[in-house]
Amino acid sequence: SSRVVEIQSQMSERAVELLGLPEDRPCLLLDVGCGSGLSGDYISEEGHYWIGMDISPAMLDVAVEREVEGDLLLADVGHGIPFRPGMFDGCISISAVQWLCNADKKSHSPPKRLYRFFSTLYTALARGSRAVLQLYPENSEQLELITSQAMRAGFTGGMVVDYPNSAKAKKFFLCLFVGTSGTLPKGLGTECANEELHQAKFTNERTRFRNVKGKSVKKSRDWILEKKERRRRQGKEVRPDTKYTGRKRRPHF
Questions:
Q1: Residue 35: count of CB within 10 angstroms of its CB
Q2: Which position among 13, 79, 160, 172 has the lowest Cβ density within 10 Å, counted as fewest Cβ atoms?
């Protein structure tokens, strides 16, 4: 339907905008879950080149019929991104990555598939570039699973939420940086809202310290929690957080 096409195009535009591409040269982008190539049309219009991956032969057939300008690859991104290191100047994905959370076959392990996807994507992206993945998470656990596997694979960044206070227009963009930690872009429609509150509700603890300019004060409770969180992401044994974490002890006489 034309409404779906319109929403898809808007999200593609927003994703490309969040990539922050250089304006003086054409870039090569990867479109994950490219479908019939609607995002690709926008990328081509902007003067960039693209390669699209999708798991659906039917969707790719439509893209071929529509004579899109990008190259197309039939593949399951859960098996990894099969391109040379540093090949892409950026990656976008519109409402596709959440499918990796489903185990369609007995052998499928969502965390493993997500990690395989993110770690190979990290390699295929040029240093200093970004991946912007718009997704429809089912719940905060799913969001947490996706984000944690991305961070495990080496990405920095986090979730940009557009229109957090609108049930209809709310959109999640996982904005990931390769090899540099950029400043996370602001979500649209957050100016008037009490943004912190609404974002935190859904993205759990993890982004609590990320939006603050600068780092947490050394040895403060936040600093300790961040450090423990980083250790957990690296798969290390870490004691659970409690109300005593980071509390000052009374001096002993």
A1: 21
A2: 79
Residue 94 has φ and ψ, to the nearest 5°, of -110, 120
Residue 205 has pLDDT above 60, yes or no: no
11, 16, 19, 70: which is closest to 178 by C-alpha? 19
Q: What is the pLDDT of residues 101-135, one digit of tens each?
A: 987 766 778 999 999 999 999 999 999 999 999 99
pLDDT at 194 over 50: no
Given a contact cutoff of 8 angstroms between Cβ atoms, the answer to whether 162 and 186 are in contact is: no
- Cβ atoms of 8 and 38 within 8 Å: the answer is yes
Confirm if 37 and 70 have CB atoms less than 8 A apart. yes
Compute the half-sphere exposure of residue 113: CA atoms within 13 Å on the CB side of its CA: 18
Residue 66: how many other CB atoms lie within 10 Å = 12
Beta-strand runs (E) in 8-87: 28-32, 49-54, 71-74
Under a CB-based contact definition with an 8 Å cutoff, are residues 137 and 174 in contact?
A: no
Sheet holding 156-162, edge to edge: 71-74, 49-54, 28-32, 88-94, 125-135, 171-177, 156-162
For residue 208, count other CB atoms closer than 10 A to its CB. 17
Pick the CATH number of 1-178 from 3.40.50.300, 3.40.50.150, 3.30.70.1070, 3.40.718.10: 3.40.50.150
